[in-house]
Amino acid sequence: xxxxxxxxxxxxxxxxxxxxxxxxxxxxxxxxxxxxxxxxxxxxxxxxxxxxxxxxxxxxxxxxxxxxxxxxxxxxxxxxxxxxxxxxxxxxxxxxxxxxxxxxxxxxxxxxxxxxxxxxxxxxxxxxxxxxxxxxxxxxxxxxxxxxxxxxxxxxxxxxxxxxxxxxxxxxxxxxxxxxxxxxxxxxxxxxxxxxxxxxxxxxxxxxxxxxxxxxxxxxxxxxxxxxxxxxxxxxxxxxxxxxxxxxxxxxxxxxxxxxxxxxxxxxxxxxxxxxxxxxxxxxxxxxxxxxxxxxxxxxxxxxxxxxxxxxxxxxxxxxxxxxxxxxxxxxxxxxxxxxxxxxxxxxxxxxxxxxxxxxxxxxxxxxxxxxxxxxxxxxxxxxxxxxxxxxxxxxxxxxxxxxxxxxxxxxxxxxxxxxxxxxxxxxxxxxxxxxxxxxxxxxxxxxxxxxxxxxxxxxxxxxxxxxxxxxxxxxxxxxxxxxxxxxxxxxxxxxxxx
Length: 499
Prior knowledge:
The chain is α+β, with helices and mostly antiparallel strands. The chain folds into three domains: about 1-215, no CATH class; about 235-330, no CATH class; about 340-499, 2-Layer Sandwich (Nucleotidyltransferase, domain 5). The chain is built from 13 helices and 21 strands. Helix 7 packs antiparallel against helix 8 and helix 7 crosses helix 9 (about 315-330). The relative contact order is 0.11.
C-alpha cells in the first residue's frame, strides 16, 4: 500500500482542494492481488487504490469510455511470425499504466483510507491524472500511449488499433502489441528492439520482463533452434479442473460423444429440478471453458458452443455434457498451440452442418485458419437465420469465413507480408458453384444480399475457394461431434500438441 501511495504522489495524480458547491466526491477502496509468473509461482503482492467508478455520472464525470485491446488472432499471428522468421520477442509491463492518462473531466475523490492528510481532513482530491476504477481510465491511457508511439514514427494498423508497426530503411521492422498495460515487442534486430524498450522506459514507468513467456494468462514456450513457439494454458486448465473438483476424473478422448444433441427440452421441468440445478456452477464452468476455447483450444469450440446455448436454464444432461468436456480437458491439459516451420501462408477451412439445432433449427458455421502449422483464427457459431437447403447453410458459412479471410489478409499486409490470395477449402460443391457463378436460381434467389459478399471476393481474386473432401476438411470438428480418429487428426492439424 505504501509503495502504491508513493507512486500516486510521485505521479501527482491529485491535488487537495475544497469540494465545490454542488459537486459530489467519489469514494475509493484498496484492492489486493497476487501476481504470478509463467510457472504459476507467486511473483509479487500488489495493492491498488481504485476509484468507485460506479458512482460516476455520465455527462459530468465522464463522456466517452471505449478503449480497444489487441485481438487474440493478432497475437497468434505475431507469435507465428516470430517462430518462422526467428524474431526477437520481448515482453514489457507498464507499472500503474492508468495513472499516465490525462483527464479531460473535472473529478473529485475522497482521500484514500489510511492516508488522510493530517490537518486537511475537510479537503478532497481533485484528480489531475487518470486513476484505476474510473470509467474513462482505459481510454485515457490508450490515447496517451497511442499519441506517444505514433510520435516515434510507428504506424497504427487499420486492421487492429492496438498493433503498431515500423519499418526501417534497411528492411528491419518492429511490431508492438498492446493489451491494456501488457506489451509484446517483436523484431529481427535485437538492438532496435532494445532501443524501443529504452524509449518507452524514458516516457513511462516500465518493467522489462525480458523474453516473452506469458501473455494474458497464456504461457509462451520457445525453441529458437528449431524455430517453434508453443502457446499454452495448462496452468489455467489445471486450475479450473480443481475449481470444479474434476482434477481426478477419468480422461476421455473427445469433448462430446457422437450424435449428442442438446436441446431446451432437457431443461428442468419442475421446481425440484430447478432447485437442484441452481446449486450447480454451470455458468461459471462454461465461462471458464469459453476463455480457454477462444485463447488456445479450437478443439473444444463446437462442444463449448453447444453447452453455452443453455446457460439460462440448464438441466442435468447439459451439466453432464459440461463435465464430459472437463474430462476431455483432464487428459489434454498439456496440449498447446504450436507454430513453426518455414512456410508462412494463410489457409482456411470452412464447413456447416444443417439445422442440427433442435430448438431453432439453425445451422452451425465453423471455420479455422492456419499459419505456420498452427491455428490462428477459428469459430463455431449458430447462424443468425434459418437456412432452407444444405447448400444455403454452407454458402452462409463460406461468407463468414471470407470476411475473416479478408481481415487476416489485410493484417498480414500491414505487417509486411503480402499474400496475393487466400485459399479457402470447402467440401460443398454446390456452395462453390453459387460463389463462382452470379446467376440466381429458384432455390437460391431468396438468399440475403449480405451473403453474396463471397462472390465479390472470389471474383476479385482475394479468396480462392477450392473443393476439398469432407475427410480432409479441418473445419468438420467445428460443426458437430465426430469420431475419435478424425477428431485427433483435426486436433493435430490445428497445431495442437503436448508441450
